[in-house]
């Protein structure tokens, strides 16, 4: 008869593995919920992967294969990571449960980069994604996130690329109901729809605090039925007094956007900005601004050097509802297709 005090080698190995997993989860603050490796949740695996970015020298790749409803805040992203959905023909869901933000990245590029693909991020409190790292979003749906912008790119040199995404029914108490950008790096939004987003200040869907070195591209973007409590029902871009960031609006469509408290129902530009509006549908889209001041476009506070410039291609649209703040140095509005080539 075998002595009870000694386990078989296989049993000892299984016990050791379970203890090691439990210790890792305890270190992350999750371990009290689970006692064995077989009971590790998708939320815990995601948290462990994020936690490992602190010492990562190459991107940590994590694939989510089932829906997740957060039960607590996820760790901060401190290094490079790729987060992908792997739910077959549908997109996996990460749900903030109306209590938590979802992904927050606070390191600095180029040491930190965040790529998120094929997911639905919804019901986040205080925003679904906040990043000071370089940010790439591909085929991500942001829905019903509240409190802060659904996606935000913070101060610093971070660049951002958003492609084939959907931002719908998000709301922010401040500016930028769906997307808020204050980073100095280049940014691009491609084939993306912003629909029914709300902001308590400027930029019902998108707010960009432009930097002198930045260029911002909106390529085949749809902005529909967004609303701002102040100006820029669809898109609001403010430049700086030290230089004019370039803003490309190419092949886009603005419809039924509303600025309930100020000018610029569809689009508002402020301070020193070099805007190129090319092959874009904006007139006749039932955009509306308070008092009819620029139902389509508003050019605000443009008394800076260099002057605000706005180029239309193929021409300034007939019937454009345009509001311009009365200042000594009025913005320069012209027809110019030479400036429409998008930067890479």
Automatic annotation (TrEMBL):
<dbReference type="GO" id="GO:0005576">
    <property type="term" value="C:extracellular region"/>
</dbReference>
<dbReference type="InterPro" id="IPR011050">
    <property type="entry name" value="Pectin_lyase_fold/virulence"/>
</dbReference>
<keyword id="KW-0998">Cell outer membrane</keyword>
<keyword id="KW-0732">Signal</keyword>
<dbReference type="Pfam" id="PF02415">
    <property type="entry name" value="Chlam_PMP"/>
</dbReference>
<dbReference type="InterPro" id="IPR012334">
    <property type="entry name" value="Pectin_lyas_fold"/>
</dbReference>
<keyword id="KW-0964">Secreted</keyword>
<dbReference type="InterPro" id="IPR003368">
    <property type="entry name" value="POMP_repeat"/>
</dbReference>
<protein>
    <recommendedName>
        <fullName>Right handed beta helix domain-containing protein</fullName>
    </recommendedName>
</protein>
<keyword id="KW-0472">Membrane</keyword>
